């Protein structure tokens, strides 16, 4: 694995960590035009006191500043694939050099285009002043970009650590319940227990892949089938599952270990507590730009599905994972309705 250079090092910056944003994006162009015009307006307001406001000078000044800002942004946008190969100091110097060159050249052209307006202005001093102001403002903007990129990097690292912590809670809980299921079979049905151990090995091999934060619906369903094969050995005919899976949803990506804990929760806190067992209904569909997943299972008449702390742990874990992965872009509901417990999840399609 290549070593990532620390912030400020002279090594190349990773593409996703490059502090200079895409200045050709519509949002970036809009804010560049808006901030440039506000800068010109503030300068004219300060320069007009105590004289009347110079409306005639506002137009040429706005045109000049907007030209410098947009041309510099366009050049930096075009040079971005090249600049990303270099370290932070070289990128900063190159960006400031582009801004200074554009400002100096534009100032010289402005004197040729508006000789009556700028004939009283001393060319060397005026051009140097414009370059210094442009470089100073560009340095402030680049510093803002850098600090913003560092904030995003810290938030990303915190999110990854939080997700890893939440994910690490799943495996001991799942492993404990599954081993209990196998232990109950060893004495009475050793051959079935042996098959269950083999299924558990395949299941753990799939569920402990920490390098994969996402999986597909089809892969998650295969994981659930291995889990249900183990639980069926313990519960027998008491456990039934009704699947309603949209074919279009099978290739959709979703967070790994999302459906299996919900299914495990329904088995341990619903089906296993009912002497007669019951049927779990699972519906998965892709519709209206969302992946919709619902799970309904019967629960005991007294105590309900929320009586156990393990259930709260499983549901709270999933709720926190979704909140971290899809802030303000997901829905998670879990509630009892009569003798049933329903969980509904909606995620945006990638």
Write the topology of this structure.
Elements: H1 26-48, H2 55-83, H3 88-113, H4 115-118, H5 123-186, H6 190-207, E1 214-216, H7 217-235, E2 239-245, E3 253-255, H8 259-269, E4 278-287, E5 290-298, H9 309-325, E6 331-337, E7 340-348
Parallel strand pairs: 2-4
Antiparallel strand pairs: 1-3, 4-5, 5-7, 6-7
Helix pairs in contact: 1-2, 2-3, 3-5, 5-6, 5-7, 5-9, 6-7, 7-8, 8-9
Q: Could you explain how this protein is built, in words?
A:
The radius of gyration is 31 Å and the shape is elongated. It folds into two domains: 107 residues, no CATH class; 193 residues, 2-Layer Sandwich (Heat Shock Protein 90), CATH 3.30.565. 60% of the residues lie in helices and 14% in strands. By secondary structure, the protein is an alpha+beta fold. It has a five-stranded mixed beta sheet, with helices on one face. Helix 3 runs antiparallel to helix 5 and helix 5 packs antiparallel against helix 9.
Q: Which descriptors would you attach to this protein?
A:
2 domains, alpha+beta, two-stranded antiparallel sheet, five-stranded mixed beta sheet, 9 helices, 7 strands, disordered N terminus, Heat Shock Protein 90, 350 residues
